[in-house]
Amino acid sequence: MFVYMPFISSSDRVVWYGGESTQLHYEKLIDGKWIERDVQTLGSGIPSGMSEMHAEMVEYYNLSQVLEQERIQQLM
Predict the structure, then answer these.
(1) Burial label, 14 (beta-carbon count in 10 A; 0-12, 13-18, 19+)
(2) Residues spanned by the domain of 60
(3) Which of 27, 32, 40, 53 has its CA 20 to 30 A from that of 60?
(4) Residues 6+ apart with CB under 8 A from 42
(5) Displacement of CA 24 from its chain's centroid (Å)
(6) Among positive and negative, which fits the CA dihedral 13, 14, 20, 22?
(7) Which has the closest alpha carbon to 18: 7, 35, 40, 3?
(8) The pLDDT of residue 16
């Protein structure tokens, strides 16, 4: 498992569960449990290095933040 969080006490994160998985999972911490909010498939497959995986995770995290803001605005 490889996790990207912008800071240690963040309440949201992007996770790659390892192995042959080609999916990144966007999760939020709700009531002490990590809840999956969205999933994205890595279009080019698993990156060949950790720096490429990190870049994919950061990009997906930023996109997920925009989508979360849109969801919140739709609820208002």
Answers:
(1) buried
(2) 2-75
(3) 32
(4) 22, 23, 24, 56
(5) 6
(6) positive
(7) 3
(8) 96
